[in-house]
Specification:
By secondary structure, this protein is of the alpha/beta class. It folds into 3 domains: 83 residues, Arc Repressor Mutant, subunit A (Orthogonal Bundle), CATH 1.10.10; 96 residues, D-Maltodextrin-Binding Protein, domain 2; 99 residues, Periplasmic binding protein-like II (D-Maltodextrin-Binding Protein, domain 2, 3-Layer(aba) Sandwich), CATH 3.40.190.10. It is 43% helix and 23% strand. It contains 11 helices and 12 strands. The strands form 3 sheets. A 5-stranded mixed β-sheet has the order 4-3-5-12-6. Helix 5 links the parallel strand 3 and strand 4. Helix 1 packs across helix 4 and helix 2 packs across helix 3. It is elongated. The termini are far apart. The mean pLDDT is 88.
Length: 301
Amino acid sequence: MALNRLDLNLLHVFDTIFREGSLTRAARALHLTQPAVSHSLARLREHFDDPLFTRQGNQMVPTPLARRFSETMRPGLTQIQSAVNQFHAFDPAVQRKLYSLALRDILESTFLPKLMRRLGDYPDIGIASQRIARRDMETQLAAGKLDFAVDVLLPISDQTAHELLRKDRLVVIARRDNPLAADGLTMENYLAARHVLVSSRSEGPGIEDFELSRQGVQRNIRLRCQHYYAACRVAAGTDLLLTMPETYARLIAEHADIVIHTPPAELPDIDVHLYWHKPYEKEPALIWFREQLHAVAKDEA
């Protein structure tokens, strides 16, 4: 097969198999049948005189030649796709699209209900929400496995774009008859109380503790856990106080006998950012979805 006959469709199939690691998942992502993807892979193998991918369990693992080719080919393919996308509009009313979105658990609870209500008029638009390790965010955005990520401000490379989506302030929740908060929350009874700290890390202070330490005070952490929902249930059934983002606190307060208090100290806001891979940012389908995300974030404010 001559080099000039290796068409763009085959390159797209190769790149999708490389990213998905499975012929079945690649076929689903390409909206093709699995035999069609297998046929394209056979043509690629003939052209390169190399198996390109070998099956190991349920995974299609790229050969060394395939890895080298992917590193060389992907930047050019991304540029071609970006150029083509600039000349195509996206109509969510008639086009099918599954968006992949990385969210932390608290953002899933506050963000997804409003997002799905907003997408109610577009039955062929789907959302796949997932939680990923922050260290993998840029890699998955660049590989096309993620369309967007929503998280706090993170250190990133110049290949990842980001913008402020919304701000969330910190509040303190306590059970309704907590004696320490009966007459309003002062710094004295805030420090006298025992606290729940929510963190995915096994040690270290929360963002509220940094500000408290600047003021020369320290609170008593009785419980450290990973999820705000669990922490809210603890605060609702004990005298422990929980400092947490207001948006999720108000959602929990609809179903729990808790009271939301203003912190006794000025605590920093939580900046929530939207992230995406820069070379894809002119794709009409992604531009449209960014607009929907901003509309939902504005509605939350």
